[in-house]
Amino acid sequence: MKYLVTAVYVVLLAWGFYVGVRQIYQGYRRPQELLNPLMANRHALRLYTVHLVVCVVFLFAVGPWAIAHKSTLWYWGGTIAMLSISLPAAAFFNRNPQSFGSFIGQWVKLRNYFEYAAHIVVASVAINWSLYVLLLWWIVAYRFLDVGPRRSLQKLYGTPEKKAARPWAPTLNWAVIAGIYVLAFVVVRNDLVLFAQVPDDATPTHDAAAWEIAVVLAVNLGLTIFAWLGIKAYSDSVAQAGTPDKATASY
C-alpha cells in the first residue's frame, strides 16, 4: 500500500514541477500560450522562476534535511525564504480567479490563510517533529500536488464556449483539488509516504554553528531584497506601459 501511495504522490509532485517549468519556458519562448498572461512580463517571470527554485530547494533538500537532523534553524530559515519570495508573487501575480473561476480563487485564498495560521501555530508550540513532517509534505508539497490536475481540468472550461457547455466543470475541478488536499493530509499523517517520515527519537538535535546562522540570515535578507526590487521593477514596467497590466480573463 505504501509503495502505491508513494508512487501516486511522486507522480503528482513531478507533474506539478513540470507545469511550473513549462510556464517558465512559455514565458520566455511562447508567451502567447501562457495561462497566466502576467508571466509574459520579464520581471514577473524572473520572480516566478526564483520562487519555483526556492520552493523546490526547500521541499526536496533543505526541509527534509532539517527534519532528518532535527534542525529548527534550517527548517524555519527555509520556510521564511520560501514565504519571502512567495508572498509578493501571490499578491501581484495571482490569477486563480481569472484562470480557474471565482470558486477556486476563493478556495486558494482561504487555504492560504489557513496554511499561514498553521505555520504560526506550529512555530509557537513545543517542538513536535511529526507536525513539521505534516507541514512540509502536506502544506508545502501541495504547492505541486494539485497543479497538474487543476491545469488539466481547466481545459474543460477554459473558453466561454466550453464553460457554457460544461457549467459543472469548475465545481469538478474544485472537488478534485480539494480531494487531493484532504488525501494528502491523510497519507502523510498516517505515514503512507515512504520518504515523509518522522525522525527517530534517538536522533540528536542539530546544534547550529555560527556560520549556519549567518548563511540562513544572509540568504533570507538577500531574497527579501530581491523580491522588493523585483516588484518595484515590475510595477515600474507596468507604469511605463501606460496602462494597468491586467490581461483579459480566460473566460
Can you give a write-up of this model?
The chain has 251 residues and is mainly alpha-helical. The chain has one domain. Helices cover 75% and strands 0% of the residues. The protein has helices at residues 2-29, 42-68, 72-93, 96-100, 102-124, 129-140, 142-145, 147-154, 160-165, 169-189, 210-241. Helix 8 packs antiparallel against helix 10. The longest helix is centred in the last third of the chain and has 32 residues, at 210-241. Mean pLDDT is 87; it is low at 244-251.
Residues in helix, % = over 70%
Order of helices and strands: HHHHHHHHHHH
Number of DSSP-assigned strands: 0
Question: Roughly how many Å is the radius of gyration?
Answer: 19 Å
Low-confidence stretches: 244-251
Please tell me what the overall shape is.
globular
Number of domains: 1
Mean pLDDT over the residues: 87
Q: Percent of residues in beta strands?
A: under 5%
Outline the biggest β-sheet: none
What topology emerges from the helices and strands here?
Layout: H1 2-29, H2 42-68, H3 72-93, H4 96-100, H5 102-124, H6 129-140, H7 142-145, H8 147-154, H9 160-165, H10 169-189, H11 210-241
Helix pairs in contact: 1-2, 1-8, 2-3, 2-6, 2-11, 3-11, 5-6, 6-10, 8-10
Task: Summarize this entry quickly.
With 251 residues, the protein is mainly alpha-helical.
Name the descriptors.
single chain; 251 residues; mainly alpha; 11 helices; 0% strand; globular
